[in-house]
Amino acid sequence: MATRTDPLTLEVVELIGAVVARYHEEYDRAAAEQALTGAQARVLGLLSLEAMPMRQIARRLKCEPSNVTGIVDRLALRGLVERQADPGDRRIKVAALTAEGREVARVLRDSLDFAREPLAGFSREEREVLRGMLRRMAGE
Q1: Which domains does the chain have, with CATH numbers?
Q2: pLDDT in tens, 63-103
Q3: What is the pLDDT of residues 19-54, one digit of tens each?
Q4: Which helix (H) or strand (E) holds 93?
Q5: Closest Cα partner for 26 from 105, 130, 131, 115?
Q6: Percent helix, strand, coil in the chain (nearest 5)?
Q7: Are 34 and 41 in contact (CB under 8 A)?
């Protein structure tokens, strides 16, 4: 069983940190090219999957709902996001991408080559194994 200080565990932790740092650098660079902050770009990325309430966005980004409200407000001012009634509960408002927001999210996604290029060299089975391990690490 691995311990928290065995050399292999320490190396894996360092490698994860390097991957995360490079991902954030590339994500922030891609966001800046669209005149967005990294947080705004991450919200657009989440909303490109589905419209969701602010609380759900906050949980996914691991931040306070009030921070998400400010981010969504700024994205709405740019015409990238709009608030809509939740079809399942009209009392709840969800943030959803506009057509322009979907296009900006696509441009952002297409510009993130760092993770996509190395993963392209992995077989489908290797990507599924990696996904499973990452989900376990994330507690999903």
Answers
A1: 26-112 (1.10.10.10)
A2: 898 899 999 999 999 999 999 988 888 888 899 999 999 99
A3: 888 888 888 899 999 999 989 999 999 999 999 999
A4: strand 89-97
A5: 115
A6: 65, 10, 20
A7: yes
